[in-house]
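hey can u check if this looks right to u? its 479 residues, i copy pasted from the old doc so theres a chance i mangled smth
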Amino acid sequence: MISSGTISRPITGPTSANYPVVKGEEDGAKPAIVGSTLLAVYLFILASRILDLSGLWWLHIPLILWAMLTITTLVRGNLQFAFASKATKYFAAFTVWVVLCFPFSKWRAASMQSIQWQVQSFIIFLIIVQIVRTKRDWQKVVGAFAYATLVGALMAFHFGYTLEGRLALPGGTLGDPNEFALLMVVGLPFWWFKASRAQGLRKIFFLCCTLPIYLAFARSGSRSGLLAMAVLLLLSFLFARGTQKIVIPIVALVGVVASTFLLPGYIQTRFMTFFSSGSSADAATQDRINSDIASSEERKALLIQSIQMTFEYPMFGVGPGCFSFVAWDERKAATGSGGESLVSHNTYTQVSSETGIPGFLLFSITVFLCIRSVLADYRRLVLADMELAQYARYLFMSMGALAAGIFFLSVGYTHMSATIFAFSVALHNVVENSLKNSGSRAAPKVPAWQTATLSNLKQRPFQANQLKPRRQAWPEVSR
């Protein structure tokens, strides 16, 4: 990677669609083992929320680790390395814009926490991009996120509680069944990634680790999580090859059949409200289903209200974290009853209504750039480096599920999105560094028929007469 205290010149050659090519560590350079290990521990604690349920919460270990990693990043220097990517610049601009919206907030006290979350999330983003610079680093932090997902699922079965029949962790961000389900979905592809690189018993072990995640996800009863899972399975099918395209639908069908035996009747009926509002459930279950249907209608109304609020306050919005309060005031003035104070349940309209159209554009462009970058890296690597192509493949699945899942959740300033964004930028830097050290650039995408032709040519024995030049008659040129 970039050595401390110096900025290397960009190497020449084609660049990806989103990032300039930045020179990374030379072969043989010692990776930041301590920093990446510390970062892996921090991401595990942050994503799994394991300390929230332990007696050590009062030690503030995540805060201490965050401070240590921040100091490590600053001491290492060369923040230009992180800011070389467009995604970093847009995410930084979004963070600055969130802060700039504070003076125009309808309720400044309520905006303080959202601003604090966003600044912390951006620092986490920078820490990941600065520290993760090799394949080993990337595998380590992604593996930590995968294990955090597994531990979160196991803790839900042991320490969890049911919120109206739905599984979630007590307290914290994972106390919401919808956010809990989204974590399960976003973390699944990283277990598939680990299994794809393993053989024998290790491969079986990694695949078995996904079973508690599947079950915890299903027990959450999250309809938004179900849509995110559908996007994840669709992407996995599109990226599948050969027999995998047969295995994926079979596994999905087995999961649907198993759910009829493993899930409570209320959860099954709740999922079926996607297709029909009627059911033959008992009176108590039907009352809860009617409440779920009313909740869906309420979310539609909140979506419309958040869009209207975006155009009422197009520049700075109503202030970070203030949608629920301003929306309640508007409903109170219009109908005489404000009802419950609820968030928009849509990250994109949460950002647009609270930080205005500029904030919405900056956030949406960040999401788009990260997704496009991972897809571009995958296409460039398919013929050049299949191992790294697998990295991009599974990250793209996770990012696609995240982009779909946050459409039904208000998580615009939280660390989950920032972490996945950082994985994207860090992976691109690893790809560029690997291609540079191998002395080659990624080959352009070749059509399938050309790939088959090249394969046939490679299998033909070489013949010396292939090098004989053909005799060509040149026409006489009249002077």
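Residues 33-444 form one domain.
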